[in-house]
Amino acid sequence: MPRRRTPPWQVAGLFRYAREAAAYEAAVDVCLADPATARRLGKRPQATAENVRVAMLAEANVRRALEPCQENQRHFRHALRRHETTRDRVDYLHDPPAPETVVLALLSLGLLVSLVAAPWTYVGVLALMTAGAGLAVRRHPLWSMHVRHNVSELGLKAVLFVRERQAEAADRRWRLDLQLRGVGPLMQRVVEALLGDDPDSLLLPDDYEGLRSPRNRQYVIDNEAARRLARKVAQREGGTIAVSGPRGAGKSTLLESCAEEADLAVVVQAPATYSPYEFLLSLFVTVCETYLTEHGSPVPDVARLSGLHRAVRRLVPLAGRVTRYLGFALAAGALVVLGLSASLRAVAGRYDDPVLLRARELWSDLTGTAAAVWRGESVGAALVAALIGLVLWWMRRPTGLGTEVRAVWPDFCSLSGFLLVLGAPVSLLFDSDVHRHARDLLHQSPGELALLLGLGLLLALLFLAPDVEWTVGGVTVVINRYLQAGVGGMLAFGLLPLLMSAPSRAVATDAGNPLRLACLLLGVLLIRARSWTVPQPEPPLVTECRDQLYRLQTVQTSSAAVTTGLPQLLTAHTTSLSTVPPTMPKLVSDFRDLLTDIAKERYARKGRVVIAIDEVDRLGSDAEALAFLGEIKAILGVPHVHYLISVAEDVGASFVRRGLPHRGVTDSSLDDIVHVQPCTLAESKAILEQRTQGLREPYTLLVHGLSGGLPRDLIRYGLRIMEIEDKTRFYELTDISRQMILEELAETLAGFRTLLAKQQWTAETSPVLLSFRSLMGHLQYLCPCPSADLTRALHHVAFYDLDQQLGPAAAQVPEPTRLLIDEAATYVLFSLTLLDIFGRPDLARRRAEAARRSPDGNPDLLAQARQELEVSPYSARPLIAAVRASWALPDRPSSSTLTTIPRPRSSPCPVHSGPAGVGDTGAGDG
User: Per the domain annotation, does 421 fall within a domain?
Assistant: First the structure.
């Protein structure tokens, strides 16, 4: 009976076969198990795996998921239909094999086997039996029907096997298509819908390895400053270019990136407490060592002097290796010479007289020509001799004709060695004695000849094969020289019995075999000689760099003693000579000369020499940095050398103001300058996208605002977000942003309080310190519970009015102290603004409304406000006020908030108790 088909699946008209439904459900399960999807599930109440699965099995979503994959579904359905049809026919024809079918099959199989191995008599008998059985089956209707039935069933089973493989391949293609174009994208939209409003506020990064490696070069992206520096370097053949910008703006990364593209680059750090002489000495040594390393020459180890025990410790292993090598070399050479000496002497004796006669003739011709040239009788030969002498002198240089000869040498050795190795066995084909012995061996024992040739070929291949590693079944087999020697020895031992017969022994002991072996060895030596190189003279610059290293890093002393007088009364006179360290002018002159030669060599090869001096802004004030530039100005301006110097913004501003009203050291030291500005919002997004995967835009806005667009702080705050998530298990933007902003605020206020403690205070002005102390008390115990007291404390300090709080006593506060108070209050206002923006839900809607109200609603303005805090609190506060107005945040709180500050919490929150300290639990309400 035909097999009854499985009824359609739950969704009518979408799946005709159960395997279609199973494939769809399997695709749903695979997408649910994907780490990017599984990480987002369970973070909000409705976004669970079960809810996603129910939504993906709904009829409407099934139709949406199948639309992009209809072509592959049609192929899968066609393969299933053919498979089901074939299986139904197999089930219908399924019967046990009939006896006549078995007999006929056995006779046919026996006939096929006999055709391969049996004599023709047996083949004929089996053929007659098979033909008779076939004729009997054909004439009997019932037997014929049984045979056709069994054969048809067997053929359909073969077809069914093929159809099953086709259906499985179509199944795999359709499942993959569903995952990539159907179920996968739709499931992302379903998860977004289940997450509810503002799904981007969830912190669900896939990877943040780039944040953990801030100095890793693979995460560096191109920006406008890098392109400007590259253009300025490409436009000049040399010169000094300064890279100016705030700390953390990426100046060091910019210098390192430019140095990587140079042919020869040296990156050095400017010392914090500099000495120009020591800095130049260190730079000189670094340049010499870099040049030696680039040329593959070892850097001399002059830091430690080897004592006697160190020399002995080095010589003992060397002596052991030399002894072992000589032991093998002498024994092997003696045996090879002993075995080949007779044949080589015979060959030499055969060709001795003709070769000597020809050599004498050539020598006579050469001496006669030389004598004629010396007497002036052969002008043409004299000119040729002079030209040959000039060519020989020219070949002494690495760039002369010797370069072409050295280039041809490996090919010559390979070709000659290959011909000799190939000629040794080929010569056997032209040896009449070997032919005669081989014919005798072929007639007497052909099997022995075949085995002899096979073992000989295997032995040759084994010894000529290089060291290899084979992995078989998870087991690694290393075929090295020791294994080759062992297996070769066993094969050679196996050849000994074969050489006992007279023909085999005659072939093996042919008189020409030692000469063939000598040619084979000579060919192998030539093949190995292709890698041999003739020691070349050391380039002059390498020698110069090595000599300079010895001169700069060692003190050399030379002494001489003279003894005079009679043997009874000896008098000794000793003279000592010691080198004097170079003075600063001499050091500058030598450095410039060496660097000029190096740059000239690299420039001739279209190369570029870059010397990058980093961390000049670390010297302290701009006056100290300018003094440092003035001291090292003598080494700048070397032709074809690019100096890249990172400087602070003050030094960059001094260069920009050159000539207004007078010229400074930057005008005479620097040729150009590249200003590195903080990143824009787009550049910050690019940096974070390069270093993380899955970090949503709200977190990018938060990190960009906190860092002010400085790449170093951008990476630090990005890593801080991951740290808070790992510590608190918060996933919402509101919780994470509050925690990070308040932690950063507490650390910054602690720094301001330290600075304020160094000022002079009186009893009338002390309320200022009490206000900051109260706010830091509120920040000591943080929790996710709403806290109106913390909000009032933040508003009190952010809008702190010194005159209103202190009254007449405000006149006692010095101007520097007042500036510190205003800076701290403005920073608190900036942190409060970040809390009001990111610490509240529904960021996307509020951001759109702020953009409609005013251009100041652009989140990039938060980073600009953070940058302005470093300039002046008085210019930053109007900018922050404009941002707050765009986001509909209160500009001035109530009067009670400004006059009083609530008492801080004296213990952790009883609901969310945890270890005391900032950031140990959740954040307060902003």
Answer: no
Q: Among residues 516, 400, 418, 504, which one has the least CA distance to residue 453?
A: 504
CATH code, 254:
3.40.50
In terms of domains, do 279 and 325 share one? Answer: no
Q: Which residue has the tokens 């359709």?
A: 174
Q: Looking at the domain assignment, is residue 558 inside a domain? A: no
* Structure confidence at residue 923 (pLDDT): 37
From residue 72, how far is each of 20, 75, 189, 737 by CA, in Å? 11, 5, 23, 46
**Cα 356 to Cα 336: distance, rounded to the nearest angstrom:** 26
What pLDDT sits at residue 830? 93
Rounded (10°) CA dihedral 14, 19, 21, 25: -150
* Pair 347, 355: CB distance under 8 Å: no
Report whether 33 contacts 185 (CB < 8 A). Answer: no
* Range with lowest mean pLDDT among 218-227, 525-534, 713-722: 525-534
CA dist 718 and 700 (Å) reads: 8
Q: Once rounded to an integer, what is the mean pLDDT over residues 190-199?
A: 84
Q: Is residue 617 part of a domain?
A: yes
Q: Mapping DSSP to helix (H, G, I), strand (E, B) and coil, where does residue 349 land?
A: helix
Residue (of 829, 825, 804) closest to 896 by Cα position: 804
Domain boundary among 453, 483, 507: 507
Q: How many helices (H) and strands (E) does the chain have?
A: 38, 9
Q: Which residues pair with 611 in a beta bridge?
A: 266, 643
In angstroms, the CA 452 to CA 444 distance is 14
Res 887: pLDDT: 92
> Within this chain, do residues 276 and 341 fall inside the same structural domain, yes or no?
no
Looking at the structure, do residues 44 and 155 belong to the same domain, yes or no?
Answer: yes
DSSP output for 140-200: SHHHHHHHHHHHHHHHHHHHHHHHHHHHHHHHHHHHHHIIIIIHHHHHHHHHHHHH-S-GG
Alpha helix (H) ranges present in 729-859? 733-757, 767-778, 788-798, 802-806, 815-838, 843-853
Residues 349 and 486 in one domain: no
pLDDT band for 920, please (50, 70, 90 cuts): very low
- Which two structure tokens, joined as six digits, stand for 338? 């002993």
**Cβ(133)–Cβ(105) under 8 Å?**
no
Facing residues of 559 across strands?
576
Question: 0.85 exceeded by the pTM?
Answer: no
- Does residue 274 sit in the same domain as residue 327? no
Residue 702 counted as domain residue = no
What angle, 0 to 180 degrees and rounded to 10, lies between the N-to-C axes of helices 99-117 and 141-177? Answer: 80
395, with CB counted inside 10 A (0-12, 13-18, 19+), is middle
359 versus 602: the higher-pLDDT residue is 602
Length in residues, the chain? 926
Segment 295-300 shows an average pLDDT of 80
Are the C-beta atoms of 784 and 923 separated by less than 8 Å? yes
Confidence of residue 915 (pLDDT cuts 50, 70, 90): very low
- Do 814 and 776 share a domain, yes or no? yes
Per-residue pLDDT, 814: 85
Q: How many domains does the chain have?
A: 5
Mean pLDDT, residues 42-59: 87
pLDDT (0 to 100) of residue 503: 63
pLDDT at position 831 is: 92
Given 466, 482, 507, the domain boundary residue is 507
In the prediction, which pLDDT does 138 show? 67
- The Cα 397–Cα 399 span in angstroms is 5
Residue 557, SS3 per DSSP: strand
By the 10 Å C-beta count (0-12 exposed, 13-18 middle, 19+ buried), 576 is classed as exposed
Residue 494 lies in domain: 444-507
Say whether both 341 and 286 belong to one domain. Answer: no
How far apart CA 266 and CA 609 sit, in angstroms, is 8
Using a pLDDT cut of 90, give the percent of the chain over it: 7
Kindly state whether residues 47 and 168 are assigned to the same domain: yes
715-732: pLDDT as tens digits: 999 999 988 888 888 888
Report d(CA 544, CA 316) in Å as an integer: 33
